[in-house]
Amino acid sequence: MRIHIGIDDTDSPEGMCTTYIGALLYREISRMAEPLGLPRLIRLNPNVPYKTRGNGAVAMTFEASEDALQEIKDLVLKKVGELSDLSHENTNPGVAFLRGDVPGELREFSLKALREHVSIGEAEEVAERIGAEVFRFKLGRGIIGALASIGYPLRRFTYELLVYRKPENWGTRRRVNMESVFRADRWSYPFTYDNVDPHEGTVLITPHGKDPVLAGIRGIDRGRVLRTFEMVEFEEEVAFHQLYVTNQNTDDHLTPKKIRELKPYDSAVVRGRVVAPYWERGRHVFFELEDGTGRIRVAAFEPTKKFRNHVRKLLPGDEIIAAGGVKEHLGVLTLNLEKFYPVRLVPEVRYEKPKCPKCGGTMKSKGDYLKCKRCGYKMPKKLIPVEVPRKLERKIYEVPPDARKHLSRPLVLPGGEDALLSLLDVEEGKDPTPS
Ligand code: ATP
Q1: For residue range 319-361, what is the model confidence (pLDDT) as tens digits?
Q2: Domain endpoint, select from 246, 277, 312
Q3: CATH of the domain at 67
Q4: Residue 219, domain extent
Q5: CB of 107 within 8 A of CB of 153?
Q6: Which helix (H) or strand (E) holds 222?
Q7: 142 and 10 in one domain?
Q8: Are strands 294-300 and 284-291 parallel, antiparallel or unpaired?
Q9: Where are the alpha helices (DSSP H) in 298-353?
Q10: What atom in ligand 1 is closest to the CA of residue 93?
Q11: What residue ranges line ligand 1, CB within 6 angstroms?
Q12: What's the 373 CA to ligand 1 centre distance in angstroms?
């Protein structure tokens, strides 16, 4: 009998990680039943407010005997009950079990949980219709992710190898030899990626919270991911590690849309024209984008750091393709920019003072006339338009790795440009051609 297990919402900013519970369970259940593939780390809608970090849920599938089934379920519920951070108000674990094949309705529910907002009630209704068993701890919001992770069609995927810490080290500084990470990265990049930030000179594989994760190594090549793990020198004892297959870095969340269609929780790719000069509030950079159907505020928030400099180079009239999450920011619907591609840039014109027609000297502005600094010649102020080269290239600009959404595909990976460039043939305001 095939059994699918889904788990979500076990952690809080104070500790724990659903992948840790998932990895422990995968190891234990693998002694009682035959694992069918690796455990799956499924990232769902990155724009929902309840997430702790990356809205991740965990699923795994086994071929189990009828006798083992109850024992497996008891074990899952016991571990989730014991290890979840139930003291935290926002931790509302959910567990789902499904026997047999995954029905189409669950696949659709998963894609809805990736792209829209779903209620706990909807999850319960789907579970009942498809005959899945769901278990709620506290509010039990986790049943949404638990079910969605079981049904997620992993057509595109990457890997993440998660390395876990001994409980006595949780909450302390993570001890990993930095030079070994740079060395491993030089060998494996881009087959593994996000190991380091070469511009900042920092290591990215180690998270910062109180959770049990010591490091995460992401990649598209399973062998290189494992080898990179072997090359990294950990300076504290590793409890255990687990390779996950995941929808991270697939751009699965991005859907081509027209601006009129955008609503909160969407992750969309739109094509439009910059309406007016950008403005800044706090350290955030904003501009407005319109297509034939509507207008939306676009934001590059402070954590996107140097990415904002590229946004500041956009001019009114520029046509771009923009990808990001839609959220209300200060009461205004806002596209939170992840990547953009300049399709057509307007010429940038600077107005310069002419040289003195008499002596070739430099002219100075004096109200509405110009006066030569050298010979004193005066003439009406008539400035000369000069076209200056635009500082944006025809390439995709993306936020730095630590500001990137887990689902967003880095440009360095094959297909990293596809989600945006698929809109290249689309004329502004017209329907995107289905891919
Ligand atoms: P981590 O990444 O560290 O595991 P997290 O960011 O995944 O943490 P969770 O604690 O899992 O955060 O919280 C996310 C919650 O949102 C879960 O309860 C999940 O069921 C729920 N959820 C997931 N997708 C949706 C959705 N599309 N609509 C509404 N709720 C959702």
Answers
A1: 999 999 999 999 999 999 999 999 999 999 999 999 999 999 9
A2: 246
A3: 3.30.70.2200
A4: 158-246
A5: yes
A6: helix 222-231
A7: yes
A8: antiparallel
A9: 307-311
A10: 18
A11: 8-9, 11, 17-18, 44-45, 48, 50-56, 92, 113, 117-118, 141-142, 144-145
A12: 67
